Fold this sequence. Notes:
Elements: H1 7-13, E1 18-25, E2 28-34, E3 40-47, H2 59-72, E4 81-86, E5 90-96, H3 103-106, H4 108-112, H5 116-138, E6 151-154, E7 157-160, H6 190-197, H7 209-225, H8 238-246, H9 262-271, H10 282-292
Antiparallel strand pairs: 1-2, 2-3, 3-5, 4-5, 6-7
Amino acid sequence: MAASLPASIAYQIGPISGSELIADRRGSQVFRVQRPDSAALAVKVSRTNPDPGAPNPDYARLLAAREAAVLAHGPAPAGYLHAAGATREATWIAVAWIDAPSLHRTFASARDADTPEGRRTALIAAAAAAGAVARLHTSGWIHRDLQSAHLLCGPTGASLVDFAFAQPPTGVRIEPVVPYRGGLVHLDAPELARALLDTGPAADVTMDPPAEVFSLAAVIRTCWTGVWMYDYPEDATMTARLSTIAASDRRPLSTQRPWAWPRLEALLTAGTEPEASARPTANEFADALTHAI
C-alpha cells in the first residue's frame, strides 16, 4: 500500500514526518501517521461512494463524523481524539495510535496448541477486554460494534477502538444521526436479531448491556475456535442469517473448540445464553475471567 495521507488533511493535523496506508475498505482508508514528536496517530479518511447504485453514497462520511462527535463526548480516554474535520473529498478523524495486537491475534497460541502459557495469555487478554467493556458500561455508554479488531490487547490492558456506532447515555444526543442496524452480524445477540427483523432499514435499533455481553462472549468464543458460532451457510442472505440468530440456532461449542477447556467453555456458555436475563453483566463476566486465570 503506497498511498500517503492527502495533503489537505495532513495540513490540518499539523506537522507529520510520514504516513503509511494500512487499511483500505468500504470507502474508508486508515493511515498510520508519524509526528515529529514520535507520537503516532491513526487517521481514518472516509469518502463519498462513487458507485451510482449506492443507497447512501455519504454513509462512510456520516459514520466518520458521528465517531468524531461520539469521542468529543468522552467515552474514550482523555487525549485519544486528536483532531477531526472534513474536506470537499472526505471526512476524517485522527486518534492516538494504539500499538497492540487484536484479541484474535492474542488468542493465536491458545488456538494452535493447548499449553498452560497459551491458556494464561488468552485468559488475561479476555479478562482485560471484558474489563474495558465493563468500564464503558459503567459510564453509561455501549460500544455496539464489538469485534476482535476493535479490542486491542497490550501489556497494560485492553483498549476499545472504533466508536462510530457507540450508543450514548440517556439524554445525550449525537449528531449526525446514523441509524444503527447491528454490528458484525455473526456476533449479534438473538434479541438484537429479532429487533432488526421487526424494523425497517431506516430504523435506529438500540442495544442494552446484556446484548453487548453476548457479543463480547461471542467474540472471545470466535477468537478461541477460529470460526463463527451460528449455523448458516456462507452464502445465506442477511434475513436468513438474522432468522438463524434470532432462533439461537448455533453450532455446539463442543464441535468447534480446539480442545476441551471446561472453565472457559462454561463462561462462554453463560455469556451467550439465549435469554438476556440469564447472562452475567460485563463486570461479572470480567471478574469470572480474571478468577479463571
